[in-house]
TrEMBL record:
Pfam families assigned to the protein according to its UniProt record, in alphabetical order: META
Superkingdom: Bacteria
Gene source species: Brevibacterium aurantiacum
Location of region: Disordered: 21-40, 87-106
Protein name per the record: META domain-containing protein
Amino acid sequence: MSNSVNGKWVSSKDGSSAFLKFDEDGTLTGSDGGNRIATTWGSEGSGAVIKPFATTQRAVMGMEAWVGRVHRVEADGDVLTVFDHGGNHLGELAKDTGSNEPDEGR
């Protein structure tokens, strides 16, 4: 499933390890910095709709809890805008340009 959201998107906030990774096979992995996200996604225009998922509710310093409320995303260049079920803007992630750091929660 080729789409402009394919790839890894990361937080630009200092100390944050939050990310979302969209694979071409429709799988999504991610983390808010303390809780792992694993689900699937479907293409929608320049973005994607995230299928419902269960996650733990740990609190960790530096985490970005809004990432765990993702329902829909839109890509515009190197910026991924994240929305919740109500269409509310939650935040933004930046296209990863080749980080060699391991994924949080793996």
